[in-house]
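Below is how a single chain appears once it has passed through the pipeline. First comes the sequence as given, then the structure the pipeline wrote out for it. We keep one example in the README because the format questions we get most often are answered faster by looking than by reading.
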Amino acid sequence: MYNPSLSGSAGNSAANSRLYIYEVSGLRDLQSSNAADSKIRRSGSSFITVPYQRMNQEMRRIASLGGKILSIRPFEAKSEPTSVESTEPMSIETTELVETSASAPTEVAVAPAAKKHADVPVNIYRPNAPFVGKCVSNDGLLADGGIGMVQHVKFDISAGDLRYFEGQSIGIIPPGKDAKGKNNKIRLYSIASTRHGDDVDDKTVSLCVRKLEYKDEKTGKEVEGVCSSFICGLKPGDEIQITGPTGKEMLLPDDPEANVIMMATGTGIAPFRAYLWRMFKDNERHANPDYSFKGLAWLVFGVATTPNILYKDELEEIQEKYPDNFKLTYAVSREQKNAEGGKMYIQDRIAENADKLWSLIQQEKTHVYICGLKGMETGIDAALTNAAIKSDVKWSEYRSQLKRAGRWHVETY
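Resulting structure:
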């Protein structure tokens, strides 16, 4: 087990000297050297004390031990539970490094809750009566050398009454039966086009779909996703069953002066493509005279390699054309290094920009959207915890207030 000293150069900064408490459930016995042989703790939560500079490593260690992080909070020497397991040797000298601001109250001003979107279409088409659309185009999104298969697929919906807003999803029913002889189940996909469609004629809807491919651990056989393989293999003219639309969690605010922070991994870019096209594409701006975006849109996008940056040319074109309104930040895990010399994940970029993001988040017109792999949420929370504490704010409480105010939007899997 890693056991550094806080007296070294890495521990002398104010940030690195802070300690945090991770509340963890489902954790295997920490004393076992073999995680696979460890028994799962079943009696409540475990509490682990972690110095700031070890937060990312400890998250990975907890995940490898089968644990789930329930909360992260600053260490308060006088009030923490006694059942604390520490990855650091605790001492009086160590605890004295914690700043008193960590226990300050979190009375903060948060914008009032946004009004409900009563006019948002939901479930126009249901599973027992889906809309049958047709594939218009199916284009690869990866550059040469990209990993896997990701497609931008456009469907003709002009023969029906399917309407949708940016941030919603549609269901796709793949043909055929499952292993039990029942019809294949619906899969939901975030819509990647604006409400007017890619052609701005209100006749299409588009998806960004990655073909699911993995090796079955029991059989060793390669497995392909039923629905994603079906969609990625469509040809122009092929029919497809569509349900929906669904969802109101990821809708954009109506205010064109709002700040919109977007954090995405992989195909989690789909709803954000719809947002950005609505905000910045010339044809869209012409089609929406009542919505002229004037705020700041900031996209933090995590991918494995540069060829896996989806919609790269168009994103960078928007950045070049609207430098005052669009900020683009990549996290390319297999090519870039974080401050500790490890792979650059999206949570590392959030940590690098945490103070700027925190300053934006405190503005009443700012909305935060997270879409993609669920694992990134913990790292994002850790980074914003450290930024918020500088303002005497407990991030977990503030985030709850943002959620109630309709300014914190999450769609992960």
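The longest helix spans residues 376-389.

See the next section for the split statistics.
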